[in-house]
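> call design_seq(struct)
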């Protein structure tokens, strides 16, 4: 028993996370996602809205650690506006909502306090683009009669990428991928994620979406790039702001944004590919 605990402690130390807690939290999130979709897309949209409101608040608190002061209420308010546009409209209305909220947020920030306006407004626009705008593609993906299969595709892609990059990195990681950004990411982990995500995407395209498996393989390769870049960008943000996690809300993961980083960057790619597949009957 002591040997098992020693092995578990060694894995947790190398990965930088508590593996058991991480698995429980991931399973709970997946249950909430597909449970809400099974009830109604509106329930899923509400779940996304709440999660993104928490995420943008986490990011704003991280900004404060870096010396950027923005009102919580202002950034949080952009989420239901943007997600509402995605739910009741389409990609065009989501783009209009992005333009509407960013311009109005800049004006409000100017009148609240013109000090450090460029830094504060730039941080605000980045937060709005990063969280509610990219998060809007989650709702756009669910705007379909086959919503569960479409969201399943996104979940499989990001889960395969994150999980097998994690496992491969822990077991075989020797060569750092981007040590100046994320010291724990390795080339071995990336190779593991490429193999697993490509296979996973091929299977879900064939058995769930009933499309050509090779389309899934192509999307899998694209998703590895987007998910990895999304993870690295959040790591770069945390390094710049001198924090380890966005919060400690989710045991084994950190904050909501720590869980959503790769999903937010991958959702637009999945949406775009599925739209092209449906439009051109590939």
């Amino acid at each position: 028993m002591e040997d098992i605990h020693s092995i578990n402690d060694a894995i947790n130390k190398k990965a930088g996370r508590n593996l058991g807690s991480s698995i429980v939290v991931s399973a709970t999130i997946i249950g909430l996602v597909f449970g809400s979709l099974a009830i109604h897309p509106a329930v899923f949209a509400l779940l996304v809205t709440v999660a993104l409101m928490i995420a943008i608040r986490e990011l704003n608190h991280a900004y404060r650690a870096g010396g950027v002061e923005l009102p919580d209420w202002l950034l949080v308010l952009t989420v239901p506006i943007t997600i509402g546009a995605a739910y009741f409209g389409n990609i065009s209305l989501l783009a209009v909502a992005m333009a509407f909220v960013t311009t109005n947020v800049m004006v409000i920030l100017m009148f609240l306090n013109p000090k450090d306006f460029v830094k504060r407004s730039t941080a605000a626009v980045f937060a709005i683009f990063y969280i509610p705008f990219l998060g809007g593609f989650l709702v756009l993906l669910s705007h379909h009669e086959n919503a569960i299969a479409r969201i399943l595709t996104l979940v499989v892609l990001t889960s395969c990428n994150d999980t097998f990059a994690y496992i491969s990195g822990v077991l075989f990681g020797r060569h750092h991928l981007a040590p100046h950004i994320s010291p724990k990411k390795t080339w071995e982990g990336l190779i593991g994620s490429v193999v697993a995500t490509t296979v996973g995407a091929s299977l879900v395209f064939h058995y769930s979406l009933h499309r050509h498996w090779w389309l899934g393989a192509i999307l899998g390769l694209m998703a590895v790039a987007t998910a990895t870049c999304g993870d690295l960008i959040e790591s770069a943000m945390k390094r710049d702001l001198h924090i380890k996690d966005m919060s400690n809300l989710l045991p084994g993961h950190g904050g909501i944004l720590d869980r959503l980083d790769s999903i937010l960057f991958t959702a637009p790619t999945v949406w775009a590919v599925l739209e092209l597949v449906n439009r051109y009957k590939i």
